[in-house]
Amino acid sequence: MHRRLRPRVHEFEHRIMMLYVDLDELPSIARRTRLLSHNRANLYSFRDRDYFPTGADGDLKARVSVFLRERGMQLPARGNITLLTLPRILGYIFNPISIYFCCDEMGRPLCAIAEVGNTYRETKLFLLPPAADAPRRPRFRLRVPKEYYVSPFSSVDICFDFDCLLPDESLQVHIEDWDQDGKLLVSHLRGQRVPLSDLQLLRFAVKFPALTLKVITLIHWHALRLALKRVPWHRKTRRLDLQRDVLNPSSSSITDNGTERHAH
């Protein structure tokens, strides 16, 4: 669900599926399922290279572990990282957000990491600490300056407010955008866990055909509707000084005639 509150109200809700997987289990999952592969093509595929482009060595879990160490956090040898994400579907991937949930060997939460993507194939990582007021179900909270270009209809100088629960049988992820005048946007992911199997993957392929392609198509469709509502447009090149800690940055510039040029 996505609800824009200002300067024009715009709201939509779409049904999707997402993959929630322990990174250590990816090789065994790929051996057990015919429709989901690890680092090779299939109807559904999970490729380490699609995530966490920090430049660190090793597989995805190793790169996440390096990121944590650089911030003074140590993932125990038997600690686990579970990832909520959209896999590649029919070879195509687009993820507005992927979330890594990091726990120690006893299952106690260490942190979560939100990897936010945009249509320029850039990503940015946000480290979410566990909330102290969530004793029954681990919760992760963070309000932080965005300093990242996600949408042409949102300025880069606003704040993200993340609030998400460690998934169990249900999923609850809540994200708000705030500017100096208050709450601007509300986004929410919610759902119920189902077992990972070829039968479920086949069912989702029928229920949500070409899902990742549908996601990027809907983003442009709603962008057109916002433009028709005359919601103000922010050029990516306007505040490059505020676009910080961006991974896989695109090349953006202004040509002599004032038009915007992007190379991905």
Structure characterization notes:
By secondary structure, this protein is α+β, with helices and mostly antiparallel strands. It has one domain. The protein has helices at residues 26-32, 60-69, 198-207, 211-228, and strands spanning 2-4, 10-12, 19-22, 36-38, 44-46, 80-85, 88-89, 97-103, 109-117, 123-128, 139-145, 159-165, 170-179, 182-192, 251-254, 260-263. The strands form 4 sheets. A 6-stranded antiparallel beta sheet has the order 2-1-14-13-12-11, with no helix packed on it. The chain has a 5-stranded antiparallel beta sheet with strand order 3-6-8-9-10, with no helix packed on it. A 3-stranded mixed beta sheet has the order 4-5-7. A hairpin with a 5-residue loop joins strand 15 and strand 16. The chain is globular and about 50 Å long. Residues 253-264 have low confidence and may be disordered.
Cα distance spanning the termini: 28 Å
Runs with pLDDT <50, length 5+? 253-264
Structural class: alpha+beta
Rg (C-alpha, Å): 19 Å
